[in-house]
Amino acid sequence: MENKELISCRNVCVNYGSLVAVDNISFSLNKGDYLCIVGANGSGKSTLVKAILGLCKPADGEIVKSCKGIGYLGQQNVIQRDFPATVREVVISGCLPQNILPLYSKAEKKRAKEEIYKLGLEKLTKKSFKELSGGQMQRVLLARAFCAATELLILDEPVNGLDPIVTDELYSIVRNRNREEKLTVMMVSHDIHRAVQNATHILHMNNQAMFFGTAEDYKKTPLYNEMTTVETCSTHACTHCGSDCTASHIRVGVYHS
Ligand code: ADP
Ligand code: MG
Fold first, then answer.
1. 14 in ligand 1 pocket by Cβ < 6 Å?
2. Which residue, 229, 220, 226, 219, is CA-closest to 250?
3. What totals of helices (H) and strands (E) does the chain contain, helices first?
């Protein structure tokens, strides 16, 4: 693996008024790395990603970016789902950062066609985006992000709300690009098991960095143990599902009293 540093964050702090969302985070990402950012809701993961993308400004610290082609798939929202365009138009718009008007070069059209092919979207190209299933939409948005991601792919919870089969498919597409094409990946994930299976590195946030290092080293930490401990609710009063529940829940952002 080459050792070219693509992103370096040094003591980065991001605030919303008096709220410190990202507190003194330092880490770096080299070419070919696959970093998963994990942590409970509200721990600053999306804010850190936005700061790296230049969408919000750090109050302190420094972010050095040594890469140009960044593809980004943000946390999904209702507006995105209602986007009035065909699948092809959505995919090729990933090439837009270089263009102000949607006039695409031959190379960009070729790239969009390749991504449509690689993600198995050929039969859907003329379909309206908003008519697709959730899994199909995420595939299209991933193809769009790949169009821009010549060096770095950034995904923020890309599988939220998708079924386990579609989730595995998307993880496998991203992992193959990382392993085979050495595409550098930064993904915010709630899925601790898939995170350690797929990523080379883990950043565990709780506004501050609780851990940054290799996925192998992360698995040896008490933090990882805590994230993957399964508790049987019947032995505790469960704030998630009620005190009589006998089901087991994985403690990822759901804490049992
Ligand atoms: P995560 O992605 O880990 O769930 P976020 O980065 O979205 O966390 O949020 C971190 C903290 O910043 C949370 O407390 C959240 O409520 C707050 N926050 C996020 N976005 C904004 C915003 N635009 N304005 C004010 N507070 C925000
Ligand atoms: Mg988030």
1. no
2. 229
3. 9, 11
Cβ partners under 8 Å of residue 54, min gap 6: none
| 241 secondary structure, DSSP code | T
Burial of 192 (0-12, 13-18, 19+ CB in 10 A): buried
Mutate to test the pocket of ligand 1, among 12, 16, 252 (most ligand atoms within 8 A of CB): 16
Binding site membership of 204 for ligand 1 (Cβ less than 6 Å): no
Most ligand 1 atoms within 8 A of CB, residue of 18, 19, 206 to mutate: 19
Coil, strand or helix: which one is 206?
strand
- What b/e sequence results for 121-135 when a residue is b if at least 16 CB atoms lie within 10 Å of its CB, and e otherwise? beebbeeebeebeeb
d(CA 112, CA 134): 21
The structure's pTM equals 0.86
The count of other CB atoms within 10 Å of the CB of residue 220 is: 11
Pick the residue whose CA is nearest to atom 23 on ligand 1. 16
Tens of pLDDT, residue by residue over 7-45, are 999 999 999 999 999 999 999 999 999 999 999 999 999
Domains recognised in the chain with CATH numbers: 5-225 (3.40.50.300)
Q: Which residues contact 129 (CB under 8 A, 6 or more apart)?
A: 83, 84, 85, 86, 87, 89, 90, 137, 140
Question: Quick check: helix, strand or coil at residue 194?
Answer: helix
CA–CA dist 29, 9 (Å, integer): 9
How many percent of the chain have pLDDT more than 90? 65
By the 8 A CB rule, do 148 and 116 touch? no
